[in-house]
Structure formats: structure tokens, C-alpha cells
Amino acid sequence: MTKTRLEAFSDGVLAIIITIMVLELKTPRGTNWEAIRPLVPVFTCYVLSFTIIAIYWGNHHHLLHTVSHINSKIIWANTHLLFWLSLIPFATAWMGENHFERISVAAYAVLQTTCSIAYYILLRVIAGSHPHNTHLREPLEKQSKKGVISLLLYLSAVPAAFIHTAISASLFFLVAVIWLIPDRNIEKALKE
Amino acid sequence: MTKTRLEAFSDGVLAIIITIMVLELKTPRGTNWEAIRPLVPVFTCYVLSFTIIAIYWGNHHHLLHTVSHINSKIIWANTHLLFWLSLIPFATAWMGENHFERISVAAYAVLQTTCSIAYYILLRVIAGSHPHNTHLREPLEKQSKKGVISLLLYLSAVPAAFIHTAISASLFFLVAVIWLIPDRNIEKALKE
Amino acid sequence: MTKTRLEAFSDGVLAIIITIMVLELKTPRGTNWEAIRPLVPVFTCYVLSFTIIAIYWGNHHHLLHTVSHINSKIIWANTHLLFWLSLIPFATAWMGENHFERISVAAYAVLQTTCSIAYYILLRVIAGSHPHNTHLREPLEKQSKKGVISLLLYLSAVPAAFIHTAISASLFFLVAVIWLIPDRNIEKALKE
Amino acid sequence: MTKTRLEAFSDGVLAIIITIMVLELKTPRGTNWEAIRPLVPVFTCYVLSFTIIAIYWGNHHHLLHTVSHINSKIIWANTHLLFWLSLIPFATAWMGENHFERISVAAYAVLQTTCSIAYYILLRVIAGSHPHNTHLREPLEKQSKKGVISLLLYLSAVPAAFIHTAISASLFFLVAVIWLIPDRNIEKALKE
């Protein structure tokens, strides 16, 4: 019951975060190329952030699937994660409307690093609360490994933005690819 | 459990998409006809998009009703669909605020075609994951047939917008009618 | 299962409708009385609409509580109701920002009349689909009676707005009171 | 069933309230310090209100966890609480955009006092409806005690804002700390 409600609240917040980003796609006045052009970077950022939040939702879902009980620490680690994720629409809009200006790209990378840390904390808290849950071991190890790699890639994207923002963009893209590649073990865990 | 959460997330996103569209109905200053008139096309688009998203919700609901298990492919096909659906409020506002200007109508038709394709992919992925589920066969066949017809109608609405936008509008209307006509077989499937 | 999802989608839409209305309370620049004064009518409208939507949520909840199965007709009657309810934030903002100008009050009354009709249709469709459900009889009769009275009061508020908007406002207030008065029978039905 | 839906609706409203606040973080034009500086107070208020609403969600969740049945009184006490909570995004934005001007801080304190009262009413109504539920006793006593302390702290923050707004800010901070300190008894109650 408790777990259901934690999932419901997280789903609600994630669904709203992913959807209100579309409000940043301000309706252009006019239908010619001049009117649409400023939307191209905003739209690109939307696709990126939508993918990242969808990955978080998927991972969150896999992680909680095998969790057996919830305590206050898990609730707060989860709320902490949701707080940082809730800032993604703002960072997305800022980066998009400033046409990938380097400080805005670095800020986006900082936020994604913080979100990765928050997710990693949630992972550790859940692992610590379920020391004997063998079903959790596999997804935890997979997500931990991928999580640390993502964190390092996002962290590298911060200074990279000051060399060339395209490097940061490639790193963001790389993280998405790492998570989107199908993962046989998670599949297997789900089937059990 | 897994299926419940996929439905909850989808319901959340669809509920938000369908409701934030109303934010595009900007409160007019004043209450005379001059103030209200610009809202007429925006409102017409709202009714159209509300109906289309409600139909997606209904179909999604019928489709997942008989699904027995969820895998990563289904999760991603579903997220892919939600991505395109999330753009409907933007396309709706653009078409409404530009008073059915032909490029905006064509863009709306392109988006609806893409949504149809995304729904069709979800349908195929679910069918592929449940080869022996006989309860799924009937809704799948019905939705596939109607889905392909819708897709073709939406696709025709793209060039039609450049001849006369009223043709595209009629095609949008036609698709809605096709889905709103009660379907005895889906009813029957639900009763089982 | 099916019923759960209909409730979840309705809850989502109602939760969003009730909450996005607060976005119409535009943050005033400054903290003196001059800055706050224009918010008074907007806030009054917010309280009114919040109460009305909360009543719809409560009634919807009581009604579906004893429903045993869902069919396409119920789904569409429910969607039809949600459509009209989704326009309440717009009508609320229009009435508030125009300081209860008579046309905006009449429009609000028209919308509430339409919502009442939509709710009554849902009531009839559910009653028609459950001819032998004795648990439904009592809430149905109660809600039907109150529903018809509300509808007539809202309808009277349309012409009343052109005599004096205070009459319409009193009628809106009266409808809220009718529904907020505790109803022993619904309580009893819930306990069973 | 009934309880599930009350939780779902409350979760929906709370998730939306907590998330739409981010819309007040208006995307700055430009990426230099001048452009970002006005966001600092708005962001501080966002962190504060996010924490407060997350605490309400956590407490609401603990409280309803051991509730066995729902009646009309509980539904209305809950709706009454949601109404006041729904005004938090507005009060947050007002305080942030006016850079903690004393009247806006006092207004924020008044709203938080009212929310505390509304929560206390819900607590009493639930306690009154479950006179023999021993599982409820412990969370009720804990939340009542902390609730009254919070209420008094918020109430003191109202006049304090006119002496120095930093005193009010410290009181808001103190309330958050009181609730965030882990509470062994609630943990214990959850485990049962």
C-alpha cells in the first residue's frame, strides 16, 4: 500500500514534469520559417529532456518493482530526487531559449550531475534497506554501474561546455544511448 | 503491478496533455464579440484535439486491458507514443492562433500521422509480445484496421491542406467519427 | 480493473482542472492594496469554482463507488462531462478578470448548466447499464433530484445575470450549499 | 477502494501543486549574473515551499496509512486542506518576486498558519471517526503535537515579519527541521 502511493506520487510528479516542458514551446506568431526557427533549439532540448525523464521513470519503475517495504529514508531520498528532476523544465527552457549558450549548457550539465547523484543516493538507500533481497541485487548492480558512468559523463560535460558546447551535447546523447540499449538482465528480472 | 504503473503514468500524461490545452484559451480582455471572436478557431481546435486525445485514451485503455505482461519494448513504444501526443497541445495552439492557416493545418496533420504511426508501433509490439493471447486478437485486429485507415486519412490531410484547409478539417472530423462509432466487438471483449 | 482506470483518469483530469485555476491568480507586482485589489474578484471566483469541482469529484466518487462494470457508453459520457468541466478554469478566469461583468457571469452560468446536463447524462447512462444494482438506487435518486435542482438554478442564473449579477452569484452559492449539506443516505450507502 | 481514490486525488493535487511552482521560475533572457540574480529569492522560496509540501505529502501518507474507512466529513476536511495548499504556489511566487518584502512574508506566514489549521482539522476529524483504532493513536499524537508547535511557529512568523523578515524565515526553517528529523515511532508504526 505504502509503496503504491510512493509510486503514484512519483508517477504524478514525473508525468507533470515531462508534460509541462511542452508549455515552453511557445506558440509562434506566424507560420513562416522566421517564426519557427527560434523553436528549433527549444525543441531539441525538449526531445533531450523528455528522453532523460522517461529513462528516469523507467529506471525508477524497475528499481521499485522488487522493493518490498518503504521507510522514511526511502521517502526522503525519493523526494530529494524529485526536487532536482523538477528543475529540468527550467534548465531545459533556459538552454533552449539561449540557443545552447555555454553557461546555460554547463548549468544543464550541473543539474543532470545532481540528478544522477540524487538517483544514486536513492539506489544506496534502497539497497541499505533491503540487505537480503536477492531480487534487487541484479537491477541495483546494473543501475549502479550505469549510474556512475552517467554521473561521470554529465560531470565531464560541465567543463566541456566551455571548450565547445557540442562536446557536452554529445555526452548528453551518449548517456541517453547507454540507458536506451536493451538490458537483458532487467528483462529477466522482470519476468521472474 | 508493472502494468498498473505503466497505465498510471500514461493516464497521468494523457490527463495533463488534455487539460493543459485549456491554458491556450487565453482569457479575453472584455466581454464583447470583438474580444471573443479570436477565440472561436482556438476553441474549435481545442474540441478537436480533446476528442482525439480522449479517443487515444479509450483505445490505450482497451488495448492494455487484455495485456498480461509488460517488457522494455512495450515501455519504450508507449513512451514514444506519449512523446508525440505531448506535442498535440502545441500543434493545436499553433493551428488555432493562426486561424487554420494552411501550413499550420498541414503541420497538425503531420503530427497526427506521426501519432498514428506511434500507436501502430505500440500495437505491433504488444501483439509481438503476446503471440498466444487470444483475448488480445480481436481488439488488436479492430484497432489495427481502424488505425491504418486513420493513418491514411491523416496522411491525405497533409497535401489536402494546400488545396483547401476545409478538406483537411473534414478528414480530421472523419477520423474522429470512425472511432466514436460504437464497436460491438470491443464491448464484447470487455465483458469477458 | 477497467473501473479503476476510469477513476484514475477522471481523478487526474479533475486534480489538474482544480489546480491549474490557481495559475490564473497572477502574481501582483507590489504588495500594497492597489496591487492586490484586482485579485479580489479573481480569488472569489477561484473559491467558487474550487468548491464546485470538489463537489463534482465527491459526487463522481460516490456514484462510481457502487458501479460494478464499465462500458463504452459510460466512458464516453464520462469524457463528455470532463470536457465541459475542463472549461471551468477558462470561464472562472474570464468572470474574475472582468469583475463579474454580466455577460461573463451569464457565460459562467451557461457552462455550469451544461456541466449539470453532462453529469445528468452520465447518471442516466450508469443507471441504464446497471438496472439490477440495488446499491446504486439510493445515490442515483439523491443525485438525480439534487442534480435537476442544480441544473434549474444554474439555468435561472443565466437570465438573472442581466437583471443583477448578485442574483446569479446567490444562485451559484445556493447550489454549493445544497451539495455541501451532509447527506445521511450517501453516508449509509458508503458504510455498506 | 474509497480510501484509495481519496489518496489518488490528494496525490494528484499535491503532485501538481509541487510541480507547477517551477513555472514561476521564469526563464531569464541571457545567461549573465544580472539575468540570474532576480531568480535567487524566487528559487529560495521554491526550495522552502517544495519542502513544506513534501512534508505535507509524507504526513498525509502516514496519517491515511492506518485509516480504515472514509466518510463525507473526512472527504471535506481533506478538500479543505487541499484548497489552502493550492494557494501555496501563489504565495510562494508573490514572496519571491517581491524579494521577501515584509507584507508578502507575513501573507506567506498567514497561509501556512491556515494550512496548519486545516491539517489539524483533518487530524481531528480522522481521530473522531476512528475512536477504537489503536494503530492510529501513535501517529495522531505525534502529528498533533508537532502540528500545534508548527501552527504556533507560523503564527509567530506573522507579526515577526514586521520586525524583521529574517525572523519569519528562521521560523519557517525551524518548522521544516522539526518535521524532517526522523521519527522512530512513525517508522515503527509503518513496520507493523
Describe the structure.
Four copies of one chain form a homotetramer. Chain A has 192 residues and is an all-alpha fold. The first copy, chain A, has one domain (2-191). Chain A is 82% helix and 0% strand. Chain A contains nine helices and no strands. The first copy, chain A, has helices at residues 2-20, 33-36, 39-65, 72-86, 88-97, 102-129, 134-163, 165-180, 184-191. The longest helix of chain A has 30 residues, at 134-163. The B-C interface holds B 7-8, 11-12, 14-16, 18-20, 22-23, 25, 27-32, 47, 50, 54, 57-58, 61, 65, 180, 182-183, 186-187, 190-191 and C 1-2, 5-6, 8-9, 12-13, 15-17, 20, 23-24, 69-73, 75-76, 79, 82-83, 86-87, 89-90, 93-94, 97-98, 101-104, 107.
The helix-and-strand class of chain A reads mainly alpha
Q: How confident is the prediction overall: mean pLDDT of chain A?
A: 87
Shape of chain A: globular
Number of strands of chain A: 0
Helix share of residues of chain A? over 70%
- The SSE order of chain A reads HHHHHHHHH
Radius of gyration of chain A: 18 Å
Given as residue ranges, the uncertain stretches of chain A (5+ residues, pLDDT < 50) are: none
Q: What percent strand of chain A?
A: under 5%
How many domains in all of chain A? 1
